[in-house]
Specification:
Elements lengths: L2 E2 L5 E2 L7 H7 L10 E5 L6 E5 L3 E10 L4 E6 L6 E2 L2 E3 L6 H13 L3 E10 L10 E10 L9 E7 L12 H11 L6
Parallel strand pairs: 5-10
Antiparallel strand pairs: 1-2, 3-4, 5-8, 6-7, 6-11, 9-10
Length: 184
């Protein structure tokens, strides 16, 4: 293994490498929480500030005929059951992203009913700092797993799976607490 030192020299043995340089080379340093980085402009060579911003996402609570909500079992990390959803594409509204993600992952055409709220805990997604807006929607038909979904299911409040991804347990708690009680 060869590692370049911060001053430009080469280290040829692991025992020559200072611990901080080795951690950086092996990508073992803690995720940076800096708000901005400095990069060099390729045209003029001056330092330029580059801001690190959270990534916008949407999640959709899809209510289906007969009761229950649709959850997908993720086929990529982080694994677990999750609300359908994903990243907002550039030039796309939150509503458009919700409709697209619902169709991609559940094969359902949805009608957005309301917004539940925004969730922004920086630790909500282990991959990135994301901010999600959660929609409540209705759909007819039978959901089919597609795209990022390995499996799909319809669950009631009392039958939710234990292994929920992200902060979806908190979101679903808020959703069920916001609903009027069902008559006996």
């Amino acid at each position: 293994m060869m590692v370049v030192s911060p001053s430009g020299g080469l280290f040829t043995r692991l025992n020559q490498i200072p611990p901080k340089t080795l951690a950086t080379a092996l990508n073992m340093e803690k995720k940076s929480t800096r708000v901005k980085d400095h990069i060099t402009c390729p045209h003029c060579g001056k330092p330029v500030e580059r801001y690190r911003n959270p990534l916008p996402t949407v999640d959709i609570i899809i209510e289906v005929d007969g009761g229950g909500i649709v959850l997908i079992k993720r086929k990529t990390p982080p694994y677990g059951w999750a609300l359908p959803g994903g990243f907002v594409n550039y030039g796309e509204s939150l509503e458009q992203a919700a409709v697209r993600e619902a169709k991609e992952e559940t094969s359902l055409d949805i009608s957005i009913v309301s917004g539940l709220g925004a969730y922004s805990d920086p630790e909500r997604d282990p991959r990135h700092h994301t901010i999600t807006f959660v929609f409540v929607a209705r759909a007819e038909g039978r959901p089919r797993a597609a795209d990022d979904a390995a499996e799909i299911g319809v669950f009631g409040q009392d039958s939710l799976p234990e292994s929920l991804a992200f902060d979806h347990g908190i979101i679903l708690r808020d959703y069920f607490n916001s609903r009027p009680p069902t008559p006996c």
